[in-house]
Amino acid sequence: MNLSQFSEGLIESELFGHCKGAFTGAVENHQGLFELCTSHGSLFLDEIGDLAVPIQIKLLQVLQERVFSPVGSHSQKRFAGRVIAATNRSIQDLRKQGNFRDDFFYRLCSDVITVPTLQERIQESPTELEQLINLLVLRMTGQESSRLTDRIIETLKRELPPEYSWPGNVRELEQAVRRILLTRHYGGDSILTGHDPEDDFMQKFQAGDLEAKELLSQYCTLLFNRFGTYEEVARRTKLDRRTVKKYISSNA
User: Fold this and answer.
1) What is the pLDDT of residue 251?
2) Do residues 161 and 195 make contact, with C-beta atoms less than 8 angstroms apart?
3) Given this model, what pLDDT does residue 210 score?
């Protein structure tokens, strides 16, 4: 159950169930997930970090006493299964802010698995990025392609800083791969990546680190990203359209 998709009132009903007439719209008895879960089953609660404190208190009772009551009922039912919870938010930060109860945390944390970030995975294993891109290319195109994988890796190296943090983790990488397959670029959108390739171009230009061919290639590419047509780039640079296209293709 993804807890973030329900309002506080609906979460109670989905977890604990409700009795007929307990609230407007409750036209029949409803079994909640705690009642449906068998004694040897597991209840997976996703986005536990988004859970409101009043619901945390009610869940704490279930975890501590192993009993719960449906909404609108005073009768108690027993829960004998296992609860697994997950979140993409920092529980430690939520606890410091008072948004996640300490007693609730300690009832949940019999075992804790911390999934490393994409940045940490890449730092620990240099081949991790290539393996993930291979999988994403296979999923998106239906076939493995070392040519596409190499192009994507080259684009990422060219348009992102060496120690890029990947704040969106694997989801961001998936969108980066899709964007490169569609447009052959990723780092041009500073809103998405927090990195602007124009800054790199200007730094290299001011430092005198650009060869003539690279200078024309990157300049034509920046103009193309800004204005969208080879014709406009050719008009502004006074170059032939085919020459412009060649320089932009060499930078892809």
Assistant:
1) 65
2) yes
3) 80
H helices of the chain, in order, are 8-16, 33-36, 53-65, 91-96, 102-108, 118-124, 128-141, 146-159, 169-183, 190-193, 197-207, 212-227, 230-237, 241-250
In the structure, what pLDDT confidence band is assigned to residue 26 with cuts at 50, 70 and 90? confident
Question: Structural domain boundaries of the chain?
Answer: 3-108, 123-194, 196-252
Rounded CA-CA distance 48/51 in Å is: 5
Distances (CA, A) of 210 to 12, 202, 203, 213: 62, 10, 10, 8
49-70 burial: b if 16+ Cβ within 10 Å, else e: bbbeeebbebbbebbeeeebbb
Structure tokens at 146: 């070392």
- The fold for domain 3-108 equals Rossmann fold (3.40.50)
Residue 82 near residue 42 (C-beta atoms within 8 A): yes
